[in-house]
Amino acid sequence: MTVPAHAPEPLNDRVRHVRAGELDGHTALSGSTVGSRRLWMGLVENPPLSATDDHHHGDSEAGIYVVSGHPVFVFHDGTQEVRIAAGPGDFVLVPPFVPHREENPDPEEPVVVVIARTTQEPVKVPLPGLYRLTEARLS
Question: What is the mean pLDDT of the chain?
Answer without folding.
Answer: 86
